[in-house]
Design goal:
Elements (H helix, E strand, L loop, with lengths): L2 E3 L2 H8 L6 E6 L5 H13 L2 E6 L19 H10 L4 E3 L3 H4 L19 H4 L3 H16 L3 E5 L3 H13 L5 E5 L19 H18 L4 H13 L4 E9 L10 E11 L2 E11 L14
Parallel strand pairs: 1-4, 2-3, 2-5, 3-4, 5-6
Antiparallel strand pairs: 7-8, 8-9
Helix pairs in contact: 6-7, 8-9
């Protein structure tokens, strides 16, 4: 049976009964099939899975959707129970940040200043700060994060490595709707027309990734996005698998962020570049 706890003390009491490795899945709630896939993958390896549900105010900037971000704790708890989660930790703000906002936070470095970091200043500092705190509070041996938030995953891996954190960070492939749209808690904000327009993101990534050379990858993806008037592109970028420069050949990553209506969506896919091609590509801004 899944146990719901809200305080540090109650969480610690539940962790004391863990039979072995502790796995954590961190969420902001409004759980969907993508979150449930993270839980399933965690359960395949670990008998004791903790899911955290906390809408972190530090990673929302001015004008973003902190206040209207969906809170669906009853439904979330039911989903966790169905997936065999041992503990759901749903703390209040004072439990995570006792005494108010922390004066010491994580610095994401240069990797946190590009792509999402350029569009959302301060976002990754707030994200890494809460991830570090939750890793410590949950005593996690392994943590699972979705590849949809690929830059987030890359930064958490870098933080764990640079700070010698005793935790393994594992990525899980993006879960999509049947029509290709990447699952996101923000998809519920889309009207039917906006949702149809949003399909341009996954279509652009899919058809771009089918190209053999770097310049064609970006050209094809950008053309598809430009043809959808309901999509306002923030960035379209081809990078290396660690978000560095795109390689001349081999594995790369194609990433996009765009607004559809007032909803900001992100997505990405792996790309296999053929040998002997050029990689003179930079992040490309949309209109």
């Amino acid at each position: 049976m899944t146990v719901l706890v809200h305080t540090r003390a109650d969480l610690a009491a539940e962790l004391d009964r863990a039979p072995g490795e502790i796995a954590v899945v961190m969420t902001m709630g409004a759980l969907h099939e993508g979150h449930r896939q993270l839980m399933r993958v965690a359960r395949e390896r670990s008998a004791f899975v903790v899911v955290t549900i906390f809408v972190n105010p530090l990673q929302f900037g001015p004008g973003e959707d902190f206040e209207k971000y969906p809170r669906t704790l009853d439904d979330d708890l039911a989903a966790c129970t169905a997936e065999g989660v041992a503990v759901v930790f749903a703390p209040g703000r004072d439990d995570v940040y006792p005494g108010g906002a922390p004066s010491v936070t994580m610095n994401p470095g240069g990797l946190g200043e590009i792509l999402e970091g350029a569009s959302r200043p301060g976002h990754f500092s707030g994200m890494l700060t809460v991830v570090q705190k939750l890793l410590m509070l949950t005593r996690a041996d392994v943590a699972y994060f979705g590849e949809k938030d690929f830059q987030q995953l890359a930064l958490i891996r870098r933080m764990a490595r640079d700070l010698e954190l005793p935790v393994e960070i594992r990525g899980v492939p993006t879960v999509r709707e049947k029509d290709g749209l990447a699952l996101s808690s923000r998809n519920r904000y889309l009207s039917p027309d906006q949702r149809r327009a949003a399909l341009a993101l996954s279509r652009a990534l899919r058809e771009g990734a089918a190209q053999a050379d770097a310049e064609s990858v970006l050209a094809v993806a950008h053309k598809i996005l430009a043809e959808e008037p309901g999509v306002r592109v923030d960035y379209l970028a081809l990078t290396g698998p660690d978000l560095g420069d795109a390689p001349a050949e081999g594995v790369a990553r194609l990433l996009v962020a765009a607004k559809v209506g007032s909803t900001r969506l992100i997505d990405n896919v792996p790309v296999q570049l053929a040998p002997g091609q050029l990689a003179s590509v930079q992040p490309r801004k949309g209109a």
